[in-house]
Amino acid sequence: xxxxxxxxxxxxxxxxxxxxxxxxxxxxxxxxxxxxxxxxxxxxxxxxxxxxxxxxxxxxxxxxxxxxxxxxxxxxxxxxxxxxxxxxxxxxxxxxxxxxxxxxxxxxxxxxxxxxxxxxxxxxxxxxxxxxxxxxxxxxxxxxxxxxxxxxxxxxxxxxxxxxxxxxxxxxxxxxxxxxxxxxxxxxxxxxxxxxxxxxxxxxxxxxxxxxxxxxxxxxxxxxxxxxxxxxxxxxxxxxxxxxxxxxxxxxxxxxxxxxxxxxxxxxxxxxxxxxxxxxxxxxxxxxxxxxxxxxxxxxxxxxxxxxxxxxxxxxxxxxxxxxxxxxxxxxxxxxxxxxxxxxxxxxxxxxxxxxxxxxxxx
Length: 363
Ligand code: F6P
Hints:
- This protein has eleven helices and 13 strands.
- The chain has helices at residues 19-32, 58-61, 94-106, 118-129, 154-175, 190-198, 213-225, 262-274, 294-312, 332-335, 347-354, and strands at 6-11, 36-40, 53-56, 111-116, 134-138, 178-183, 203-205, 231-236, 248-250, 257-259, 278-282, 318-323, 326-331.
- The strands form four sheets. A five-stranded mixed β-sheet has the order 3-2-1-4-5, with helices on both faces. A four-stranded parallel β-sheet has the order 7-8-6-11, sandwiched between helices.
- The site of 6-O-phosphono-beta-D-fructofuranose has 12 residues, from β10.
């Protein structure tokens, strides 16, 4: 089939199960239209001259859907970082954008699909405003983009949390211990909340609901009184006690912090206050790697196909969005405006409370 049009795709920021399904979806849908597809390697860095890329076709992408990570590689640092720290927006230098434009023009690419989270989509917006037609696909295991009800990768991350809790449960029961599992999610508690409920956690601590160590300890003691001798606690990496601060490593100014370690503090306080033997465990990147779930594969494919449709309809500056069981689109500028966080009064939290889950707060 003759190539009528040539599009580019790149993924940027942290990897995420389902990225390869998006690449497969884009390649399949574009090929059916007779278009050519170029995959840029290592995120936006692949746009720097002469352009680190690979030509994609359905034969090349066949079978990649079941693989975790991304066949194109990704980076969350480099020349195109447009957000540094929370609420601190920085623009990509115009000479870097000019270099990217030269690569895109040189390769005859007429539109670019950017698969990324809020930072990468902010960079995409800048490319768009400087004359590169762009379409966005939302990506984050944290599920914290307000403009889409779901992102691929979230279900796989939650599945890893559930698997970890199932394993921790048996050892906690055998030793009559408290086990504290720390999970990802940045400043949103979605992974902890969904993973915790599905994995049978007794206490869930999330960033949106500052806890007290006293309430957490009370929940453990209360369980003991009621005859439960082991307790599973899930703590989101971005959770903090009332008046306390985030735990992690400062990674270079502007408030950037690599969140890690809150579970140790929670475990320490539980053991001190209850006398129960307590252990902590950080799930870390195990929840980002590995094969995507069936749901994430399907979402990835649908997002990829929709991105191609958006280009066909010339809806540049739009991002694929999942709402009410169907895949549509929103303006990227609306999508990066607001993070979606857990509503402490919302139905999911209320349901969790109804089955006895504590959030380490007053009910
Ligand atoms: O945003 C996705 C995420 O996995 C967060 O949940 C986590 O805080 C962060 O990325 C970890 O990033 P890195 O892979 O750079 O350590």
